[in-house]
Amino acid sequence: MMAVAAARELRDGEVVFVGIGLPNLACLLARATHAPNLVLIYESGAVGARPARLPLSIGDPALVTGSLMVCGMADVFQCFLQSGRIEAGFLGAAQIDRWGNINTTVVGDYARPRVRLPGSGGAPEIAIHARRTLVITRLDRRAFPERVDFITSPGHRDRAGVTRQSSGMPGAGPVRVITDQGILAPNAESGQLELAAVFPGAEIETIRRSVQWPLSLRSPLERVGAPTEVELRTLREVVDPGRVFLK
Length: 247
Description:
Distance between the termini: 14 Å
Structural class: alpha/beta
Number of domains: 1
Number of strands: 14
CATH class: Alpha Beta
Largest sheet: 8 strands, mixed
CATH topology: Glutaconate Coenzyme A-transferase
């Protein structure tokens, strides 16, 4: 459901900064269904990649075959991302707060963390420079605190709720947070994440208990349709015949 919902967010012809895992599934599904002209860019330097199989990492050789260009990581960030050519970027999150700030650095105090996370990678640059950012993460109370322990990638406001000053950059926090229960999106006025859409079988009160702030409901609240037969068949037979997404 997460892969399908993310795929539906993409439009034909867009340039997308792709990560491994669910974002990869979403992009390949979108290209195999409603967005055949999607341009995929990977952090490792594969531009316009058309992998014949599901890549295992951003360094997978499958990304090179058939790509439009293979360049250095600096070129990906400077020539494509920082120059505003990326229309959609996918991010994950160990923590994401009510303002869309993302933490992938530490849990607890930075100097003496309880858990040290993988770090930023290119996430801060994607959050700032992509024209819109999509986050994919499972809904869990620990992952959705009112305030993140550390801001790795900026959201719509800082941890004190102060609106960030405009710098002319297109990125202003995630436009959609796709979970396994529904989709959160920022309120147009406050910038605070609210429940915008619910997946089949999900219960609103369960979703509300899974975040650490009073979660508002968008009106009207969207009810997301279940995956179609075409989407399921494409995922299972074309995009991921090894069923990696079920493991």
